[in-house]
Design goal:
Elements: E1 2-10, H1 15-31, E2 38-44, E3 54-62, H2 65-74, H3 76-87, E4 91-99
Antiparallel strand pairs: 1-3, 1-4, 2-3
Length: about 100
């Protein structure tokens, strides 16, 4: 199993709006690609309370690297562009690929 992890850092002023948008728009769009079996939407706990913004991790589970690669090639560019158009640099994302052992 492949886990596509997207960690997002979100400006304080838009956290609630972004969470709602993720739940109602973005996550359903990603899942509707048919390339992922499930996902978890998690809040990252702060280590330093003086940090600005909030961080979240979204862990998408894919059956195979081929499904993930298909997502990256055929769906991800448009979805990333939509997010960038809506939030610009108020949401920063870091992506990793993990393999279940």
């Amino acid at each position: 199993m492949i886990i596509y992890n997207v960690t997002c850092h979100v400006d304080n002023e838009i956290v609630e709006e972004w969470i709602e948008w993720m739940r109602t728009v973005h996550l359903p769009e990603v899942m509707n690609t048919g390339k992922f079996l499930s996902y978890e939407f998690l809040k990252v706990q702060k280590h330093d309370l003086s940090d600005e913004g909030e961080s979240f991790a979204i862990m998408y589970r894919s059956q195979s690297i081929e499904d993930y690669n298909n997502y990256v090639e055929n769906y991800a560019p448009a979805l990333k562009q939509k997010t960038m158009k809506k939030y610009g640099d108020r949401v920063m994302a870091f992506r990793t690929i993990l393999e279940s052992l």
